[in-house]
Amino acid sequence: MDTARNVLEQIKRKLIVSCQALPDEPLHSPFIMGRMARAAYLGGASGIRANSVEDIREIKSKVDLPLIGIIKNNYPGSNVFITPTRHEVDELVREGVDIIAMDATDRIRPDGSTIEELFPLLRSAYPNQLFMADCSTYEEAVRAAELGFDCVGSTLSGYTEATKGRSLPDFELIGRLTARLKVPVIAEGGISTPEELKRLFELGIYSAVVGSAITRPLEITKKFAMVVD
Ligand SMILES: CC(=O)N[C@H](C=O)[C@@H](O)[C@H](O)[C@H](O)COP(=O)(O)O
C-alpha cells in the first residue's frame, strides 16, 4: 500500500471500477472478481472498489491499483449494510486496503451507534487509514467531512428512505457537494454512460466509481432485453 497522500493523488480525476457480486449474483466468486479487476485495469481503471476479504485478496493478486474496500453485512434490525460496524472495519484494516468505505448516513447502525459516535473511535484507532463516507444526502456528506472522513461519496443516494426514487446519477447532490466541500467528492451510484461520467467531472468531482454498467452483465443484459421483449 502507498501512503495516504499518494493514493489520493493516484485516483485524482480518474475512474475507479467497482467489482462486486453478492452471494445471490451469478458472478459471485473471488476468482471472477479478480479477473474483472484485471480487465478493468487493462481498460484504463485507476482504482478498484471491492467487497469482502476474499475478493479483495484475490484482486490484490491480479492488479496493483489503489483499492477501496468494503464489507457488506446485513444485521437484523438495521438497514446499514456497507461496513456497518467496527468489526468490519477491523477486518479491512487487518487485510489492508488503501481506503475503507463505510455507510455514513444518519441511520442507526446495527450496534445502536450513529456515525458521529462511531467514527471518532475509528479515527483514533487508525489515524493513518483513509476513510470514504458513503452518503445519501448533502447534510450527511457535510457532516462526514466535519467528522474527518478523507473523502465523501454519493454512493447511497437513492438507497435510503429519505432518497428513495431519486434519479441517478444524482447530479444535483453531487453538484452541491463539489461546490461546498474541500474534501474530495467521489461520484458513485448509477453512472451508466461515459457521457454521464464526463458531465460529473465537469461538475468538479475528484473521481468516480462505476460498477454495474461495467461489471454486472446480468444488469447490462436486462437493459438490452427490455427493448426486445
Ligand atoms: C447501494 C449499494 O449497495 N452500492 C454498492 C456499493 O458498494 C454497490 O453495489 C454498487 O455497485 C456501487 O456503489 C457502484 O454503483 P453502480 O453499480 O450503480 O455503478
Describe this structure in words.
- There is one protein chain.
- With 229 residues, the protein is α/β, with parallel strands linked by helices.
- The protein has one domain: Aldolase class I (TIM Barrel), CATH 3.20.20.70.
- The protein contains ten helices and eight strands.
- The mean pLDDT is 97.
- The chain binds N-acetylmannosamine-6-phosphate.
- N-acetylmannosamine-6-phosphate binds next to strand 8 and helix 9.
**How many strand segments?**
8
**How widely separated are the two ends?**
47 Å
CATH-scheme architecture:
Alpha-Beta Barrel
User: Major beta sheet, specifics?
Assistant: 8 strands, parallel, barrel
Task: Write down the overall geometry.
Answer: globular
- Poorly predicted ranges: none
Rg over CA atoms: 16 Å
Brief write-up:
By secondary structure, the protein is of the alpha/beta class. It contains ten helices and eight strands. Helix 2 packs across helix 3 (53-62).
Q: Could you name the key traits of this structure?
A:
229 residues; alpha/beta; TIM Barrel; eight-stranded parallel beta barrel; 10 helices; 8 strands; 43% helix; binds N-acetylmannosamine-6-phosphate
